[in-house]
Amino acid sequence: METAERRGIALTLYSRRWCHLCDDMLAGLQILQAREPFELAVIDVDSEPAVAQRYGERVPVLLHGERELCHFHLDLPAVTDYLRKIR
Length: 87
Hints:
The chain has helices at about 5, 20-35, 50-55, 75-85, and strands at about 10-15, 40-45, 60-65, 65-70. The protein is an alpha+beta fold. The protein is globular, with a radius of gyration of 13 Å.
């Protein structure tokens, strides 16, 4: 089976430092990474004005490329299913 690194599966989590929902989603994603390997970039939306304007208060947001996988809460079944389908 190919690893996430070989396939280049990289997800992006847009979050904020002071956001408890963001902390919860990140913790869930870290647990998921142990079962379904993928790279995860965490970006503070407030560090980039264009990103902050795009997402506003609608964080956390999890993306694969431009495809939004979920927001506010980790949809574990949907993200797991998606990762398995793209492998």
